[in-house]
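Following up on my earlier message about zinc ion. Here are the inputs again, as you asked, copied directly from the submission form:
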Amino acid sequence: MGSRSLSFAGRTQLISSIIYGTVNFRMSTFMLPKGCVKKIESLCSRFLWSGGIDTHSKAKVSWATVCLPKNEGGLGPRSFSLWNTTLCLRLIWLLFSSCGSLWVAWQRHLHKLDMGSFWTAQPKSNDSWFWKSILKLRGLATKFISCHVGNGSKAWFWHDNWSPFGPLLSYLGEDGPRSTRIPLNARVSAACNRQGWTLASPRSDQAVALQVYLSSIDLPSLASEEDSFEWVIDGKVMGNFSSNKTWEALRPRDSEKDWAKLVWFKGSIPRHSFNMWITNLNRLPTLDRLVSWGFQVTTTCSLCSAAFETREHLFLHCAFTKIIWGLISNRLNMLLPYFSNWSALLNWAKVSLPSSPSTLRLLLSHALVYGVWRQRNNIIHNHVVVLPLTIFKDIDRQIINTITARRKMKKFRNLMQLWLH
Ligand SMILES: [Zn+2]
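Thanks, got it. Here's what our run produced:
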């Protein structure tokens, strides 16, 4: 089956599952070059909007918006670059946590991580590209990795995040080692003996606070357990690295969208939902928008030839569409609804009455928007004219099929009687 015959909804699914699955495998081992990630994202975007990667089709919605979760207005696939970063943070975490792994042992040996801290390792010109990109992620990783000090033999006094003040070098500043007389490359165990801590008398408020804290904890020189590292997200210690939770902490966020549940409701028809998503964002190439982009096109609605084509006109006010709304409201035994604007339609679809539950209203408004948009394109591109009644019959058939297929779902159970009564 050619991908072009896949619906938009099918393509979104495909991008998320197959393509991301393939790339994930590679991404969990390597940091992909930025240019490569960009290319993949642009291919995904092109595939989503045109059904192929060799044809150009204007993206109706930016890839950044597409990558938001559905309840924040997107479609839900993860942004590649950030997901790649997340998976590489996992590699950094392994350097700290799994001493038993051959890969970790090799990296630690290769980069002499027992002689100096990972946090201060300088990239060398003959280092692999992979290692250099891992080092670039340190600023981000330091937010997540904290150290639980045991005997102090592993933790670096100045570089690991083992106190409530964060890494002490940034807390006390470059002058810290000199003023405390603890060398820059000291482990925590080197800063104390069996009698207590060996820091020089504090000379600043910060240093006093540090010494107060140190006097309150168990002396590492008396402890027997090893130092250990923890993956911490927003102050919460994770048992182990979680790529999903780390992704959640890193990903771009947008406000929750009230309309999302009206577009992606349980049991909705995927291609209708997808079309509704674009329509709701007002990204359909309606004539008013084409003109605003500078296209020289006629602006008259092709369905009624009597008004300027906008989203509101096409789906709410057009005489052609109003006949379909009339047939629908007849069936629902209600008065013809009047929609002053797009949100009035959403508000109408949200309402649940015993005779017309919200699920039915949503199914109908989705199907109408889909059917009217298709017919509008049919006239413009193929010069095929059909009557509103034909569109209604098509909607009717789709509603019946959908309710039949979902009759076991609670919200669909009595919809058939209500629709056919
Ligand atoms: Zn019209």
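One observation from looking it over: The mean pLDDT is 90. Hope that helps, and feel free to reply on this thread.
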